Amino acid sequence: MKKFILFTLLLMITSIYLGYTMKYYVVKSGDTLSEISQKLGVSPNSILDLNVMIKADKIYSGQKILYSKPNGVFETVNKGEALWYIAAEYFATTNDILKFNKIKDLNFLFPGEKLFIPFSIMCKTSNKKSGIIWPVFGEITSPYGWRINPLFHKKEFHSGVDIGAPEGTPVFSAISGVVTYAGWFGGYGRMIQIFNGHMLTRYGHLSKIDCYVGEHIKQGEIIGRIGSTGWSTGPHLHFEIRINGNAYNPLGYLPYAHWSGEGKRLPTPYQEGMGY
Predict the structure, then answer these.
(1) What is the CATH number of domain 72-121?
(2) Which among 21, 99, 108, 227 would be 20 to 30 A from 199, CA to CA?
């Protein structure tokens, strides 16, 4: 708790210098997450991501909620982690991250540093020409179709694609739509469903859910974090596309290639292990 308080004070001090502010809201009797986000003018997804212990359906009077303006999340720099990789995880550009955090020299980045990633720079480099975007940056570890289940060692039909990525990697909505499910779902673990009236997308094995049932989600909004919940052998995203109840190969709908914000054309992760 002391570490959290010190971290919060540090955020508030640094926010004076940087281009964002961090504040607390104390939950009042009868408040809902939707009402709080509207009252504060912030995204519920940002609130849920910033507050590890907050659940959309379990908010109580007197609870303190940390929120940011503008909407955004924090990313911790890990030892040996390059900024280009952090930018890739958010489908953003290194220049945008440097500019927003007022960093002029990459040598000033150090392990444990907290970078603020505003929603406005997320998914700016995503290829949207096919109508949907890649939900996460990672490598496809198991394709769509028949396979031997890695847990039960039996032949089964894999109804989606598995995209491997470190735990905590951000997951984005591949389409705009309404959240029809957000919670534990058997072997999927923590799972989210988003429906746009024609196509339903599923995001399974999450460590964290940053949205709630009934929420209207825009394409490219952060909805959760990579995990290994449910029937899983390691951190990854199980991504499905369903139409009229039938599962289809996501690689038939996702964009083939992507022009990154750095001006480099990147092929699909199925070929090169890149999550664009």
Answers:
(1) 3.10.350.10
(2) 227
